[in-house]
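Weekly sync, protein design subgroup
Attendees: M.S., D.O., the rotation student, P.L. (late)

Item 1: inverse folding check
M.S. brought a backbone from last month's batch and wanted to see whether the design step gives back something sensible before we order anything. D.O. pointed out we never logged the input encoding, so this time it goes straight into the notes. Structure tokens as presented (434 positions):
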């Protein structure tokens, strides 16, 4: 099947209709609170298809695994398309430098450069190293939950879900927690790079005014901040992650300064919004299925399984982009060199061919084979940490608030590259709901 013939697939009215619904969501994730029926429809009709936005979309599990592990599908090339538009010739050199540094990180590199950086970073994130953070994470989570005090109702997203990863990463990396509001600002900037990147091609929704300027400003500030922090901390011999990475840079050519600063930005940002949404999406799924909340309350040892099920059922990182470096066959379709492929991991994780009754949320499912952390060389380096934070947070919340209810029945999501709630109001007793 050639790419053109597949394009012709869009002439099939059923596929065209399913594609239109799906692409409206991909272009603006705030447009619906439930994309899963859209994913299911397109997966049934055309699990690999070239969508009307011009890129290939993969929605079944088997092809998603193949795509994420395929050496000819490059994350580096995709990242360049996502972010290069933010800094073009004529833009301030500080902006270009900041973008270069972001593009120099493991997430945005292919092997062999990827392998060198990954070996360094992953030393700090082995499951054994993460186990040592359990106690500290428990103390942090308990303190944050205590902060809710006697309030009958609160916003679980801003009061608990965000503060947990903020405090954990600050602690572990040795960066000042007091600056977390700044991180949020930069995250918006970098997130917007990814979210609006297709707008420059002129085939997606128009870019809201000021987006580019705001994104540039936040990336520039992020670079400046971490650059200054590194300069201040040089020569110290701490054991936190920041000190270890500085030592790796000072040891010689293992890490350049551009890579070091980019890595710090990546580590602070990559695990921030994602982990916050693991906790928030988890609480939402559990409270929508009150039997599961009760089960977790009665059996706290199920928290690890609950985290896996949340990641499968409604994971924070919706899809991962790639660009073909050469022509390849994917799910019976020919992908030409230079074409873009979006692997929708949240769709793959609901594929009935892999997960029986995929739309049922069941914390006892006992299947951690989801793709929420991707697979292949870019498999999330922070997965063990995210799992630990999610497990402790969900366990402690179910333990401390057996009678927790949703404070709303409508849910809105950000226009973003992920699956990010705007707010999660909860109330502590059924009486408070009246
Ligand atoms: C629930 C929370 C998280 C989710 C869902 C998540 C998801 C992902 C995914 C899907 C990728 C691969 C992207 C791709 O294949 O293109 C990734 C990579 C990465 N994640 Fe996470 N992540 C989470 C938490 C974290 C945390 C806590 C950290 C560290 C503090 C982290 C650091 C990274 C890094 C550094 C990479 C790049 C790895 C590489 O390219 O080799 N993530 N993450």
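Designed sequence read out in the meeting:
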């Amino acid at each position: 099947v050639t790419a053109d013939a597949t394009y012709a697939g869009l002439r099939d009215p059923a596929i065209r209709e399913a594609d239109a619904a799906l692409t409206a969501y991909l272009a603006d994730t705030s447009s619906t609170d439930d994309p899963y029926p859209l994913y299911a429809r397109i997966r049934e009709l055309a699990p690999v298809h070239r969508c009307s936005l011009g890129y290939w979309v993969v929605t079944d599990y088997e092809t998603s695994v193949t795509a994420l592990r395929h050496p000819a599908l490059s994350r580096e090339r995709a990242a360049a398309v996502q972010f290069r538009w933010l800094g073009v010739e004529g833009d301030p050199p500080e902006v270009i430098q900041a973008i270069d540094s972001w593009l120099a990180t493991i997430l945005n590199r292919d092997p062999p450069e990827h392998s060198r950086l990954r070996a360094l970073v992953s030393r700090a994130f082995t499951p054994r190293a993460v186990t040592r953070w359990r106690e500290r994470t428990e103390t942090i989570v308990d303190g944050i939950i205590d902060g809710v005090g006697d309030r009958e109702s609160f916003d679980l997203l801003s009061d608990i879900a965000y503060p947990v990863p903020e405090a954990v990463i600050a602690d572990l990396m040795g960066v000042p927690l007091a600056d977390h509001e700044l991180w949020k600002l930069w995250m918006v900037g970098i997130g917007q790079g990814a979210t609006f990147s297709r707008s420059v091609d002129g085939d997606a929704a128009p870019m809201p005014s000021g987006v580019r300027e705001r994104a540039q400003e936040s990336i520039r500030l992020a670079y400046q901040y971490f650059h200054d922090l590194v300069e201040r901390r040089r020569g110290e011999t701490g054991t936190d992650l920041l000190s270890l990475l500085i030592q790796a840079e000072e040891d010689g050519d293992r890490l350049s300064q551009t890579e070091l600063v980019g890595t710090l930005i990546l580590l602070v940002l990559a695990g921030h919004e994602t982990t916050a949404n693991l906790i928030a999406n988890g609480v939402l799924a559990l409270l929508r299925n009150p039997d599961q909340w009760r089960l977790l309350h009665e059996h706290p040892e199920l928290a690890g399984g609950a985290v896996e099920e949340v990641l499968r059922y409604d994971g924070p990182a919706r899809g991962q982009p790639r660009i073909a470096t050469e022509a390849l066959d994917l799910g019976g379709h020919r992908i030409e060199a230079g074409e873009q492929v979006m692997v929708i991991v949240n769709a793959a994780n609901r594929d009935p061919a892999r997960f029986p009754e995929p739309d049922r949320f069941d914390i006892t499912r006992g299947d951690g084979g989801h793709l929420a952390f991707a697979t292949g060389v870019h498999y999330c380096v922070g997965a063990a940490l995210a799992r630990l934070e999610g497990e402790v947070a969900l366990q402690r919340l179910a333990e401390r608030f057996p009678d927790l209810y949703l404070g709303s029945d409508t849910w809105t999501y950000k226009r973003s590259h992920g699956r990010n709630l705007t707010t999660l109001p909860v109330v502590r007793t059924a009486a408070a709901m009246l």
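Discussion: The longest strand covers residues 320-324. The longest helix spans residues 211-233.
Action: P.L. to compare against the previous round before Friday.
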